Structures are given as structure tokens and as C-alpha cells.
Amino acid sequence: MKRCLMFVVSCALLGSAVVLHAAPALDAPLTKMIYKVAPLARVEPLDYPQFRLIDAELRNTVRRHGDRSVPNTFCAVGYRLDGGTIETVFIWDNAQWLIRWWGGDELATSEERYAVSASFSVVTDLRADVVEDARFPLGTRTVVRADAQALIADCRQHGRQHTVPPLPPKAEDDEF
User: Fold this and answer.
1) Does residue 8 lie in a domain region?
2) Residue 99: is it exposed, middle or buried by C-beta count within 10 angstroms (0-12/13-18/19+)?
3) Is 63 helix (H, G, I), strand (E, B) or coil?
């Protein structure tokens, strides 16, 4: 009986400690970040066919725009936006770019060499296209620094890390 009572008291004490020190929910509410209204939900990009060649898209983006001689790191997070659009956002650490990608079409998802839609997506250069406040009209790529920082933090907490290893130097017949 004494053991049972100690067990119940221990559970009660542990239970109250867990409530007081509980970690935030994984599905914490989304803020507006870089959007006009907050995304409706986070999504796993690989659950959608237009994002199935995400690694090939990242490799081809590095081939086209990056430094092939070093590993390139990306954070990727997907969102369902108002109106049902699904978007994946890449934070490209090496280039300091934020890339908004809506996925590839049927051809772009058919094989790796056609997976180039991310390299033609809307890019915000996090060194040049960031402003401190929204008092002035923002262009299509310009974002408010605090909004970009909120998106980067959300990606680091809920997104996936991708690394493109060093790639061979560009050859004469390289189409990138």
C-alpha cells in the first residue's frame, strides 16, 4: 500500500512538472513571416509529386548558380498557402538566398536533367533584397528583415536540411 501511494504521489508530482515544463507543440501556430497572411499549415514537400526530385533540383541550382567546389547547404520547408497553393521555401546558406519554389511540372519531375524549375524560381538575396521595415512598397523579391528571420527560424525548427556535396567542375558540354 505504501509503495502504491508513493507511486501515485510520484506520478502526480512528475505530471505537474511535465505540465510546467512542457515543450512547445510541434505544430506551433504559424506567423505571417514573408507572406501577406500566415500560411495555413506546414507540409512535407516530398508528399507532393511536384517536389519529388527536390535533391536533383538543389543539385541543378548549385550547378547553375553556385560554387560547385564546396558543399552547399539548404534548409527546405513546405507550406500550404491561402487558396490551397503548396510552396517549398529553400534557405540556401552558401548563397544567402531565399528561394520560393512551387515545384516542377510533368517534364521537370520526369528525370534529373530536367529538374531545373527551382533554379528559375523567385529568389530573394538575403544580403541585398532585405529592408528594415515595410513603410515603402516592397518589390517582388524584397522582404522585411524580421519577416525573413522568422521564416529562417521556422525552417531551422521544422524544415529539412539538405546538403549538395561538391560537384565536378563545369565541363565544355555541361548544359548548366
Assistant:
1) no
2) buried
3) helix
CA distance 117 to 139: 22
Residue 49 sits in which domain range?
27-164
* Cα-based distances in Å from 65 to 18, 56, 57, 89, 172: 48, 14, 12, 17, 16
pTM above 0.70, yes or no: yes
Q: Does 171 fall in a domain? A: no
Cβ neighbours of residue 92 under 8 Å, at least 6 residues apart? Answer: 61, 66, 72, 73, 74, 98, 99
Q: Which helix (H) or strand (E) holds 14?
A: helix 2-20
From first to last of its 176 residues, the chain has per-residue pLDDT tens of 444 444 433 433 333 332 333 333 346 789 999 988 999 999 999 999 999 999 999 999 999 999 999 999 999 999 999 999 999 999 999 999 999 999 988 877 788 888 888 888 989 999 999 988 877 766 777 889 999 999 999 999 999 999 999 999 888 657 76
Residue 134 lies in a domain: yes
Q: Burial letters for 118-150: b for 16+ Cβ neighbours within 10 Å, e otherwise?
A: bbebebbebeebbeeeeeeeeeeebbbeebbeb
Q: Give the chain's domain count.
A: 1
* Radius of gyration (C-alpha) of the chain in whole angstroms: 21
> Quick check: is 83 in a domain?
yes
